[in-house]
Amino acid sequence: MPHQPPCNALCWSPGAAALAVMLTSVLAGCSRGPAPPPPPPAVADVMVATPQTVRVPDYLEVTGRIDAEFVVDIRSRITGYLTKVHFRDGQFVAKGDPLYEIDERPYTANLAAATGTIEQLTGQRRFLTVQVERYEKLVGKGAASQQEFDSYSAKLEENAGALASARAQEEFARLNVGFCSITAPIAGQIGRTQLQVGNLINQDQTTLTTIVSIDPIFVYFNVDEPTLVRMMAHARESARELSTQARETVVSVGLVDDVGRTYPHQSRVDFLSNQLDTKTATITMRGRLDNPHSEDPAAPRPPMFRPGMFARVRLPLGDAVEKLVVPEVAVGSNQDRRILWVVGPDDVVTAREVTIGQKLGTWIAVAATDQATPLSAADRVVVRGLQRCREGKPVRPVAATETSLDPAGLVVPPPPPAQPVRLPDPPPSAALPPDPPRPVTAEPLPAPGETTP
Which residues of 307-407 form beta strands (DSSP E)? Predict the structure, then answer.
């Protein structure tokens, strides 16, 4: 008979044990209560400023090129061997300065031969003149024939033609002797010499060097047809024409180093082409720039402009108009769109798509793309902390201290004369303190006409 365990022994099957463990876990979880909610997101700290409304002239910004008034290739007018070079490569020369010397001995010999021919023909002329006079008397007395008289008369006339030709040959030989010395035809800066002493120079073929005029110098630029029509319409309304002496059209010019687009140089428009280019629908204009320089060793002053330089040109199109300007650092981008982050009355930030206009130093003109939500001078625009802004999210704005906000400081006075406008740089977009937020000290926002400390 098999052995039976006692009745009071506790026996657990595998299924019962697993169920017991599950019930224990459920009862333990119910006793903990609900999980606490996550903490609210931190509010971003940003710095804001208000746009400024100013009156500025309407401009068109185009690119152009600097070009010399005169460009002369120096070539020899005779063939010969180079004997002397009078200049240093790249130096400034005045009109009439000696440049090259060519061996003049062959041409001096030709001049002497031409002079000798003249003297020989002159002697023959004196002899023939005497003979004509003598035979004229003899023919009258019947002592000589008319044929002999006619023969001497014809020889005298032939001598006159030969003498005129010999004198022309002498002048040609004298010119060739003068051409052995090559001088500067214009004032300007000379390039490097292409040939050294001892080389053969071919007449009217060999380019020895090039001279370009430096002062004054020109800037050429193209204007599209709609802009030209607008300019001419404004000129007619103003009862004046372009480039008149009474009131010249003045454009502002900047070079590649003019990163802030201040256009510090002034140029007077003195040429407008007589026709448009049908391929590009543009017309060429030219401005005249003063380009003083000095080679005085005590106070050298190189020229500012060189032919071939790239230039930016700002052309006035009309009278001053009111525009809304903001610091350029306030303009953000969303793919191919330009946006401003505007803080509402409830400190909630929203993005406004804008169209940017001309730059005034470190400030830039803007206009709302959507006319239903225009920008105004009462708006608060984020100038620092753009990377922390999110559409529809609250922010903690701190107003930038605005001192010496003179709208006239933004205005570029209409030329002439026109002074360059330099606006102070707004504070750089520096990173704000990390979360949790801490108090932000308001920093002054440079404004039109204010100098950055």
Answer: 310-327, 332-334, 337-343, 349-360, 363-368, 380-384, 395-399
